[in-house]
Amino acid sequence: MKNIFTALILVSLLFPTTGLAQVVQAYFYNNGTGDKSFKTNYRQTDVVSPQVYYIDYDFDLKKTDDKGVINRANDKNVKVVPLVFQQDFNRELMSKILADEDAQEDIIEDLIDEAHDEDYAGWQFDFEYISSADRDAYTDFVEKAGKEFKDADLEFSVAVIPRTTPYDPNAISKDLTAAYDYEKLAQASDYLVAMAYNDPNSFGPSGALPYQQAVLDFMTTIVPKNKLQLGVALYCSKWSLTGGYKQFGELSHDNVEDDIDNSKLLLRGYMKSLESEYSAYVVPSGNLYLTWCDGPEGFEAKLKLADKYDLRGISMWALGQENKDMWDRL
């Protein structure tokens, strides 16, 4: 018994776990600091997903600069599952791809060849701004890709804009979620990522805890929990209070601190109901801004939410935008 107890202690030391989300996926894009973040925090990252591949207007697979992240991930034995999207997230281009079965076959073949050549574990489809009229065509594309990726021994996942209520095919007005048949997409892939870091009705944080909970309350009714990952924002949301309350943009935590250092801070606190920090400040021009950032405490709340729903894991957008102390919560 003593030997068993000692072995358990050694295992816990060698393979620590938080008991939270099982898989930690970190997105990367060339924002100038993401490569440095990955270099520092790769040990806490199970999967790195660079957003560097896209399908261009000629239906060819193209790659942008990954700043050495892919080579570093390979050196450190971190699984690489790149994202692939349509150039400029152009809706018309996506419609053309979905109307051309030969183009789809070529794209799938190119992705398989690239994954094998570069030793990627698989691919994640990040096709967005898809017309609701292409809903069935996109499902067919994913189903074809899923079968061929499986035969090629590649992992396959799909990033989706999530809903909080059932889809109504008879609705006159359809938003960006209408293009995703979550149930069929989940069946055709290894897992879905609910990009719940961009609440379209937000008045503050990009993905406040109540919104994420509403997303999971609905999404887990149609997608198996072990095939769902929660998208978590690492960035802050900036709002203008001058001339009306309106969203101004997205900033990294470091950018927010630079903003505040060069301004007059009026108010700072933490809103527990949203699990988000807020800061109100006046810039030298006289404009008033309010920023919302999860920070370590809010980030941990999202981790616990993923654990509560027994999800496959979390997907963090994006490396280089975070407060460095957030990594301590993993």
Structure notes:
With 330 residues, this protein is of the alpha/beta class. It folds into two domains: 250 residues, TIM Barrel; 59 residues, Roll (Chitinase A, domain 3), CATH 3.10.50.10. Helix content is 34%, strand content 24%. It has ten helices and 16 strands. The strands form two sheets. The protein has an eleven-stranded mixed beta sheet. Strand 3 and strand 4 form a beta hairpin. The protein is globular and about 60 Å long. The N terminus is likely disordered.
Sequence-ordered SSE layout with sheet pairings:
Blueprint: H1 2-14, E1 23-28, H2 34-41, E2 47-50, E3 53-55, E4 61-63, H3 69-75, E5 79-80, E6 83-86, H4 91-98, H5 101-118, E7 122-125, H6 135-151, E8 155-160, H7 182-188, E9 191-194, H8 209-219, E10 228-233, E11 236-240, E12 246-251, H9 253-261, E13 264-271, E14 276-282, E15 288-293, H10 295-308, E16 313-317
Parallel strand pairs: 1-2, 1-16, 2-5, 3-6, 6-7, 7-8, 8-9, 9-10, 10-16
Antiparallel strand pairs: 3-4, 11-12, 11-15, 13-14, 14-15
Helix pairs in contact: 5-6, 6-7
Give the CATH topology of the largest domain: TIM Barrel
Tally of helical segments: 10
Count the strands? 16
**Unreliable runs:** 1-19
Note the main sheet: 11 strands, mixed
> How many angstroms separate the termini?
31 Å
Helix content: 25-40%
Structural class: alpha/beta
Please, how many domains?
2
Mean pLDDT: 93
Named at the architecture level, the CATH assignment of the largest domain is: Alpha-Beta Barrel
Looking at CATH, the homologous superfamily of the largest domain is Glycosidases
What overall geometry do the principal axes of the alpha carbons give?
globular
Order of SSEs, N→C?
Answer: HEHEEEHEEHHEHEHEHEEEHEEEHE
CATH uppermost class of the largest domain? Alpha Beta
C-alpha Rg (nearest Å): 21 Å
Arrangement of strands in the largest sheet: 4-3-6-7-8-9-10-16-1-2-5
Report the portion of residues in β strands. 15-25%
